[in-house]
Amino acid sequence: MRNLLDRFRGAGGTSGSSGAGTFRADFTASLVVFLVAVPLCVGVAVASGVPAELGLITGIVGGLVTGFLPGSSLQVSGPAAGLTVLVYEAVEQYGVAALGVLVLISGLLQLAMGALGLGRWFRAISVAVVQGMLAGIGLVLIAGQLYALADTKAPSSGLDKIFSIPELIGDVAGSADALKAVAVGAGTIVVLVLWPRFRQGAKVLPAPLAAVALATAATAIFDLPIARVEVKGLLDAVQPPGGSEFQALAEVGVIGTVLAFTLIASAESLFSAAAVDRLHDGPRTDYNKELMAQGAGNTVCGLLGALPMTAVIVRSAANVQAGAKTKASRVLHGVWLLVFAVLFPSALGIIPVATLAGVLVYSGWKLIPTKDMVPLWKTHRGEAIILIVTAGAIVITNMFEGVIIGLLMAVAKTAWETSHVHVEVSGREDEGVDGAGSGSGDKPLRVRVRGNATFLRLPKLLDELEGLPREREVELDLTGLRHVDHACEMALATWTERHNAVVKRGAALEERIPA
Questions:
Q1: Greatest C-alpha distance within the chain
Q2: Could you give the CA distance from residue 182 to residue 172 in angstroms, rounded to a whole number?
Q3: Of 201, 227, 203, which Cα lies nearest the Cα of 214?
Q4: Could you give the C-alpha distances from 282 to 275, 418, 429, in angstroms and in order?
């Protein structure tokens, strides 16, 4: 045991703390994270359209595999609300059996990217795109879980979910059973909002577990006729991918889904790592190793046919706040999940689906940066527009296309802002004082271009050059440019050549005309 503790301390422990004291802190923190993880693992699985046990399997792998690997010492991984919408769409289109292949290939891609040192480059992704991605996920998640609150099947597309809400309200109003389910879900949300204010209770029991426990107890006491979670058993839920599922990789849509899994899971994990690093004073995250740890976890999840995993900020923050010192806390939380899934699987069968929907509606709302929008609009309006467009594109189209649109907008905005170009003209003072245009006025204008000349600024640049006197030749100086693309270089050379040719022809005609 002492050797194991020493290994944990060496990989991310707090210096100066005793082995027994460190393990005691990690043991306590692991129980807190376990209690937070159970309802979230089950809720994400149900919302994704897969057996509840698959969410627990992903949580177990996140603890026992990813939790043991180097990268981030206190970050906790498992199934996340951020991938719920994408997983649901993939399951609807390709089936649960194909999920393992999608997750497996995504994990292998993450391993490759980490080995190639690409982990740190995810920090270059525009924060507005990531926030827009999470906001879009949150909106679609909330819209979909409103139907689960009423024990009703949700429409497939994000727009249909939103446009069908008035019809849903009418159906709920006319059904006593649906009203009871909505009441349970709404009560869950109320507990999630108010429980943290009850500080003594919040220290003993995390808000998600308290909300699920109270809603489950109320459903049992009053014998409410609402849907419960379906239980299959841990081994029965495991569905390793077969040969027929691998054949689906030839489809273009499947490749797009794999890339979306990889991009979103990696970005969310590494942004979460940056946030967790700000919560503690221990070792900082090695982004490439953390990406490889996430890839290893997703590879195992894919082999088991489970949900994809990411680092989860809710569980990670709970881990830090509970006093965790080393990675032992997140490994132990995986042990508790395994014990729970093996010994008490029937406990899942008494949980109402509506209360898990309430947990996810609350989680979806937390994904939307409501507090940041007004300050962002005032200080960085372009970033706010990217955020809004990305979120809207995800709702209107799908996750992958929405993120691509956001990334393209971010790149275009950056290219536009960095393409600053200035034109400096000297030699205007050389005009003849007699106004006849003689003498020094025949000297060429010296035009110096500074900055970054790209095709985005070419119209503005040519407009400024067209405003120069037509009777004076031009000497163009491009040495002040930090960057010039081919389009600008060719356009500027062509304009200068034509302008000077016109000036020379005009001068020749004047010489031929007798005074």
A1: 112
A2: 8
A3: 201
A4: 13, 37, 65
Yes or no: say if 363 and 81 are a contact pair by the CB < 8 Å rule: yes
Binned at pLDDT 50, 70 and 90, residue 441 comes out as: low
The DSSP symbol for 89 reads: H
Helix (H, G, I), strand (E, B) or coil at 416: helix
Whether 80 contacts 235, CB under 8 Å: no
Backbone angles phi, psi at 118, to 5 degrees: -90, -5
DSSP 117: T
Tell which residue, 30, 90, 75, has the closest CA to residue 307: 90
Please identify which residue in the block is written with the tokens 């009871």.
180
Question: Which tens digit of pLDDT belongs to each residue from 284-310?
Answer: 888 889 999 999 999 999 999 999 999
Q: Which residues pair with 476 in a beta bridge?
A: 447
Phi, psi values for residue 224, rounded to 5°: -75, 135
Question: Tokens in use for 504?
Answer: 């020379």
Show the tokens assigned to 399: 């996750």
Beta bridge partners of 475: 446
User: Which H/E stretch holds residue 477?
Assistant: strand 474-477
- Please state the separation of Cα 449 from the chain's center in Å: 40
**Which residue, 308, 309, 306, 300, is CA-closest to 341?**
306
Assess whether pLDDT exceeds 90 at residue 60: yes
Whole-number Å distance between alpha carbons of 270 and 264: 10
Task: For Cα atoms 199, 201, 206, give the angle at the middle one, nearest 5 degrees.
Answer: 95
β partners of residue 262: none
Helix (H, G, I), strand (E, B) or coil at 510: helix
Tokens of 148: 């689960």
Which tens digit of pLDDT belongs to each residue from 226-282? 888 877 777 777 888 877 777 767 676 788 888 888 988 888 888 778 777 877 777
The label of the residue with tokens 């301390």 reads 9
